[in-house]
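Model it.
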Amino acid sequence: MPLPYRHLTSVLLRREGDLFLFDGGEGTQVSLRKLNLRWKKINAIFVSHTHADHVTGLPGLLMLSSQVDRDDPLYIYGPPKIAEYIESSRKVLDMYINYQIVVKEITEPGICHQGDGFHVRAFPLQHTKTCVGYTLEEHVRPGAFNPDRARELGVPCGPLWSKLQGGESVSSADGATVHPADVLGPSRKGRKFSYVTDTKYLPSIAKEVVDSDLLVCEGMFEKALTETAAEKKHMTAVQAATVARDARAKKLALIHYSPRYTDNDLKVLLAEAKSVFPETVLSKDRMVFPLEYED
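Modeled.
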């Protein structure tokens, strides 16, 4: 439930000017405005499941987007029932929508959305309602460009350098063929973001989110309430940390806390999680996590 000092679940990922929203709980618009983010740049919304605390912020966002000029379609992904929820909300609220909304229901695991240099993959979780997790993973990037080596091989600075960096062979000033491998270092790993919430602990989740730069994962209860978590099909902070450790994640951000914990009480969850996975933080409203490329 929303608390005076804690909104419901929603995570925004910004990548090269594009915005991707994961769930949209009540109050999502408040944080968007406080952060001065341009909601018209939200390209896609990924819904984990259709429990109210994860979707009640969406109708307002859809109507808000009609107040600005928007040319690109908005994609909404989620498990079965998400299309019915969006359509019924539009009809009952008589929404004025002046842009295209494309709703796609996820019925099997795999890539559900892709763009230039990245894709988003959905995978099954186990909750009291059909639920999915998501990873946004960038494709492998070309190696670092060596301008000195390009000059040595007779390739002048300019458009030919761009072609080499794009993986295309070119001809040097003396007519020799210069290949990208001649001037590029080893290929480099892209970034990976994973989002997991509202699920019982499953060892298989670690394989789905392996090598994440940031894993945002629910840690709803302390270890003493492990049985309660299992009954409600949620995870403890320790179980979230176990997933992060087994997945070799770089950082774990806990989210989706039980309302029984005040912000001060959350230190118990943090301490328990850090005992398993030291690189754990408590996520809070409007907290920002920069995700840097590896060299």
